[in-house]
């Protein structure tokens, strides 16, 4: 079908080579996920990281060589992807060969299809949730606003890179590992509290410091980009909370319901962008993202509560949200002088933890555990310093 697809999509039958390369690249990419899934299931994070980094570096170097050295142009990037995915598919299968057997099971196939096929339409909804705002900005504003939004959203997406994506890699294996343990429900309930505690603090830091960072790194034309950072940052916090709360769908094998909440949130996102972007521009797109991900969280909570009820610590979560909102509001009053603003906002970020202590968020056991951790760290630093001095004395002698 490659020549026909090339004629239809590219108006060039000779472009069929790109579709052939893409097909085999997708095939090898699927095989390459097998060792990554094994590493995730066995919690071998170092193996996962090394394998991923090695694949990325190999692909980047090969792409540079084929494009710049061999002068293959766009075809060089496609060939580099094909060779890299094929190579690491083989390497990955060799690394996890002891976990693999070559046999076919109709029962396993039915199980996988029943579990996985309902998640396919959910991917389309996820794409609409994360990308629809760009299309509305291009339709209702000019390119300068799209550039501002893109810059601001890069700061907000740091939450996705630093917290949500690593959580996504480990959370499903953790759910399946914990589901039959005696304290599984307590673990799942506390996880939402602790996730929001730390992710809100990181999002707060990005929101408070984005104005000064953009002022240092960018030209004045891009300064307004900082206005969308809080909305995008906390949108990704809400997305991570959706993943944490989405326990029952996996524990009770109800993935057939997953696409419903994703598509509902995607539809809401499209409607909000249509309404807000023409009037409010980039702020409207950012607000649409936040409201859509909050709705996604709410839909998931409603669905999971019916099939796997959990008693989340809503009173403690309310304290997190209240303190976060208070600190963020105070941060908006800080003067625009960069040195003063950086110092003031650093104090506010530390004050986040102090305010949580004041409103009695922390439980006694958590305070004791934190104190012991600090004491252990102090002892280690002390012993490390003594050991270094001993080595220096030995060297002098």
Please give the structural blueprint.
Blueprint: H1 2-10, H2 16-41, H3 45-69, H4 74-95, H5 106-116, H6 119-140, H7 143-178, H8 184-217, H9 229-245, H10 248-251, H11 258-307, H12 314-331, H13 338-358, H14 364-396
Helix pairs in contact: 1-2, 2-3, 2-4, 3-4, 6-11, 7-8, 7-9, 7-11, 8-9, 8-12, 8-13, 9-11, 12-13
Overall pLDDT confidence: 87
The dominant shape is globular
What structural class results from the helix and strand content? mainly alpha
Report the sheet-strand fraction: under 5%
Q: Biggest sheet, open or closed, and with what strands and sense?
A: none
* Number of distinct helices: 14
Order of helices and strands: HHHHHHHHHHHHHH
Radius of gyration of CA atoms, rounded to a whole number: 25 Å
* Percent range of helical residues: over 70%
Number of DSSP-assigned strands: 0
Uncertain runs: none
What is the first-to-last residue Cα distance?
77 Å
């Amino acid at each position: 079908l490659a020549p026909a697809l090339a004629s239809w999509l590219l108006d060039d039958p000779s472009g069929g080579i790109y579709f052939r390369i893409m097909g085999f690249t997708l095939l090898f990419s699927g095989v390459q996920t097998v060792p990554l899934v094994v590493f995730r299931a066995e919690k071998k994070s170092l193996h996962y990281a090394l394998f991923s980094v090695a694949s990325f570096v190999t692909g980047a170097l090969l792409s540079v060589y084929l494009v710049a050295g061999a002068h293959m142009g766009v075809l060089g990037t496609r060939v580099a992807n094909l060779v890299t995915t094929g190579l690491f598919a083989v390497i990955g299968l060799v690394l996890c060969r002891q976990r693999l057997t070559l046999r076919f099971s109709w029962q396993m196939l039915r199980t996988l299809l029943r579990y996985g096929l309902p998640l396919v339409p959910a991917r389309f909804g996820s794409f609409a949730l994360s990308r629809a705002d760009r299309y509305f900005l291009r339709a209702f504003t000019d390119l300068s606003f799209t550039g501002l939004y893109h810059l601001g959203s890069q700061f907000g997406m740091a939450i996705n890179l630093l917290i949500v994506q690593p959580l996504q890699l480990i959370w499903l294996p953790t759910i399946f590992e914990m589901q039959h343990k005696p304290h599984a429900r307590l673990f799942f309930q506390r996880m939402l509290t602790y996730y929001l505690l730390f992710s809100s603090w990181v999002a707060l830091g990005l929101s408070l410091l984005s104005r000064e960072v953009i002022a240092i790194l960018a030209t004045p034309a891009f300064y307004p980009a900082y206005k969308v950072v809080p909305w995008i940052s906390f949108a990704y916090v809400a997305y991570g909370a959706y993943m944490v709360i989405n326990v029952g769908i996996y524990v009770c094998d109800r993935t057939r319901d997953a696409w419903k909440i994703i598509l509902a949130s995607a539809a809401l996102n499209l409607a909000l962008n249509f309404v807000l972007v023409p009037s409010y521009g980039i702020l409207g797109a950012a607000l649409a993202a936040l409201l859509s991900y909050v709705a996604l969280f709410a839909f998931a909570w409603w669905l999971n509560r019916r099939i796997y009820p959990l008693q989340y610590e809503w009173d403690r979560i309310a304290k997190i949200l209240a303190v976060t909102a208070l600190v963020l509001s105070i941060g908006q009053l800080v003067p625009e002088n960069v040195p003063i603003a950086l110092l003031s906002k650093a104090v506010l970020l530390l004050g986040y933890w102090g305010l949580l202590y004041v409103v009695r968020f922390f439980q006694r056991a958590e305070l004791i555990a934190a104190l012991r951790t600090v004491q252990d760290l102090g002892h280690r630093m002390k012993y490390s310093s003594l050991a270094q001095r001993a080595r220096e004395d030995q060297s002098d002698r």
